[in-house]
Amino acid sequence: MNKIFIDGQAGTTGLLIQERLAQREDLELLAIKDADRKDESIKQAVIKSADIVILCLPDDAAKRSVELAEDAPVKFIDASTAHRVDPSWDLGLPELEENQRQKIQSSHRVSNPGCWSTAFLLALRPLIDAQLVSPESGFNAHGVSGYSGGGRTMIEDYEARAISHPNDLWYARPYGLQLNHKHLPEMQRYAHLTQRPLFMPSVGHFHQGMLVNIPLGGRAMERIDSIEQVHQVLNARYQDEKCVKVHSPNAMDSLENGFLDPQGNNHTNRLDIFVFGNSEQILLISRLDNLGKGASGAAVQNLNLMLGVDELTGLSLS
Fold this sequence. Notes:
The structure is a single chain. The protein is α/β, with parallel strands linked by helices. It folds into two domains: 126 residues, NAD(P)-binding Rossmann-like Domain (Rossmann fold), CATH 3.40.50.720; 176 residues, 2-Layer Sandwich (Dihydrodipicolinate Reductase, domain 2), CATH 3.30.360.10. The protein is built from nine helices and 13 strands. Helix 4 links the parallel strand 5 and strand 6. The longest helix is centred in the C-terminal third of the chain and has 16 residues.
């Protein structure tokens, strides 16, 4: 039986991973008593006894936990940003490219991508690979996420706001306005872009779910003849992927009175890609659960691959 330690299991992502793994009979979940959490010697002993450690920690703490493993043969999945562009770690996004799943299966160090970058990469990377858009085009991206993406403090703030100001909620609030969002390095690196995209995320007053929008216009449209051409590339790339669905061009039947619901994939490990527009301008939209395929679900998917079991064990697509 494989021994799994969730380091940081009290956080939002850690709790959801724990929930997804708790009923599995093929795993033994290791834990540290609350009173012993800050005792490095106890944590080190647990880390060294595990087969796989899942890190749900701030960046510096995640790096320290890896150091504590020393020469033990333990494998790591890191949900923080600490190792996402580290060349000695493999990106935990199985759908990224043809051999990514095999890299994860054989890896000892896997870094979960961020929720925003998962959405961005799966929509744009196939078009880069197919040379349908140039990596030098310069890309913009914007989106909205549920407030759970900000962790426990943001969840508490938004829930308190709903009680104190029920008629004055924080419906949509842009952030990262200095254009230095922590996901940008991985978005650029794994999309193979020559410059960082201009990215503007927002938080909405709903718990979870997200939309990420990538407009294609101007230079990005120079090699594109039609919206159908973009759809064909994306559909061919993901036709055998269980977690990714590419909708037909201008899929109006996916809208509710003309609106696209960011919560449409909540509680699943599914990611939808929509292609809207015309021969002059195209809008790519990814939809996913920021706590599912964007965080805890992705970690479980990677765990399954590293264990050699069906990668969707314990995950839902509906």
